[in-house]
Amino acid sequence: MPAPLRFIQSTPTLPTEADAVVIGGGIIGTFTAYYLAQRGLNVALLEKGVVGGEQSSRNWGWCRQQNRDERELPLATKALDLWEQFGIESGQETGFRRCGLLYVSNNDKEIETWARWGEYARSVGVKTRMLNSEEASNKGSFTGQRWKGGVHSESDGIANPALAVPAVAQALMALGGTVHQACAARGIETTGGAVSAVVTEKGTIRTPLVIQAGGAWASSFCRQLGIRFPQASVRQTILSVGTGPLTLPDAFVSDSVSITARGEGCHTLAISGRGKVDPTAQLLRFPAQFLPMFIKRWRKLSPGGLEGLRSGHEAYLRWRLDRPTPMEVMRILDPTPDAKSVRLTHRRAAALIPALGSAPVVASWAGYIDSTPDGVPVIGGVANISGLILAAGFSGHGFGIGPGAAHLVADIATGQDPIVDPHPYRLSRFDRGEKIEVSEF
Ligand SMILES: Cc1cc2nc3c(=O)[nH]c(=O)nc-3n(C[C@H](O)[C@H](O)[C@H](O)COP(=O)(O)OP(=O)(O)OC[C@H]3O[C@@H](n4cnc5c(N)ncnc54)[C@H](O)[C@@H]3O)c2cc1C
């Protein structure tokens, strides 16, 4: 069974013009369209499959500042407030709540890293508290184990990935924006170096402003426009178990397994960082830039199979705008979950909490996490095409920081004061010859 997701109706007709067109109905594109509509723009959101169908419904749902890279932390902090604000102003249910996140560990090095991060984070106002062995063991008493230490990040929280993007899309439509599912953007037309239209499989929309928020598809789309965007994806597996009457934490992570409340009597289980790297044509395009990242994460990554090649999101194709593109062949990236990971994750969860051993597996799925070489997203304009903004490469963090990132995109697009400094997210940091600083987490 795939990841649970609430489905919504599309707007019946595609407009012929719009103030802005957003490509990609994940958390980033949908929140961006919402913030643009709030500012009075006439916005069309294009989604080749269903809104939320790819990474944004397949994740753990963690909305955290904890262990965020210094470059991303300001966005994460703003995003938490925006999650709350969205629920209040729209009346839509995303499942967001500041339940706090609990980390426990028996690894001294890991605990030291958390402590170092915590010192910095508290200096910029983040509420995070190191737990000594006694406190970590008490808070993690449901595991029946003693822990050397831990962290409680009390102002962080979770939202429900099955609900969040559809909720934002509904709110967008309530503001007059339009949502077009099963409608791939094939490409962009420019006039005099500026965006003039988006060509979709269902017609052309004239517009001066385009946001490319296509997640794992963004690099291949950019390549059609001569834009070099280094992006690679990692396939991660996750499962959901029925936990009905069990008393479990909302959000817990240890080195062996993570446990997150998902709603409807279920919790998701996963292994942090574990994933498969499927070889693709695109991966071979940026080997040098991704090498530092893969070296840093090699313990948890292993080579995958041909799944990534077949999916087409990282193909090295040039496509035409008057013919179906790979995005119309693969409406929803729904990679096969790794059966070994499913078994291992369930086993590890049962080792920590024996009652989880008999909790039935309700669903298991996988998602392609789109990453940049440094693990920090790209948010900003691109050289040579004015009116085009890229927002992709969220590197496994985009759900939680989604509203913050989308607000920043809307700020850049409308020339308002940016919610945070956009400099760390510029695409040009990946120009050849620039040093790549890989995020520690
Ligand atoms: C297993 C897993 C666990 C994760 N856990 C967390 C977590 O706990 N917290 C967290 O913050 N993040 C987490 N993430 C990462 C997070 O899910 C992503 O960073 C985030 O969802 C990215 O959002 P997005 O909108 O950029 O991309 P997506 O959600 O992938 O959306 C992009 C959309 O664009 C559409 N699209 C692409 N090209 C086109 C086109 N040309 N025309 C029309 N539509 C197009 C696609 O169909 C897709 O729906 C996790 C990811 C996975 C897979």
Could you describe the 3D structure shown?
The model has no long low-confidence stretch (mean pLDDT 96). This protein has helices at residues 27-38, 55-58, 73-90, 108-123, 133-139, 164-174, 218-224, 287-297, 307-311, 326-329, 339-352, 398-414, and strands at residues 20-23, 43-46, 62-63, 101-105, 129-131, 149-153, 157-158, 178-180, 185-191, 194-200, 203-206, 210-212, 232-242, 251-253, 258-263, 266-270, 275-277, 301-303, 361-371, 378-382, 385-392. It is α/β, with parallel strands linked by helices and 441 residues long. The chain has 12 helices and 21 strands. The strands form 5 sheets. An 8-stranded mixed β-sheet has the order 5-6-4-14-15-16-13-19, sandwiched between helices. The protein has a 6-stranded mixed β-sheet with strand order 8-2-1-12-21-20, covered by helices on one side. The chain has a single domain (20-100, 155-430), classed as FAD/NAD(P)-binding domain. Residues 23-29, 46-49, 53-56, 58-62, 184-185, 213-217, 221, 236, 238, 327, 367, 369, 392, 394, 396-400 line the site of flavin-adenine dinucleotide.
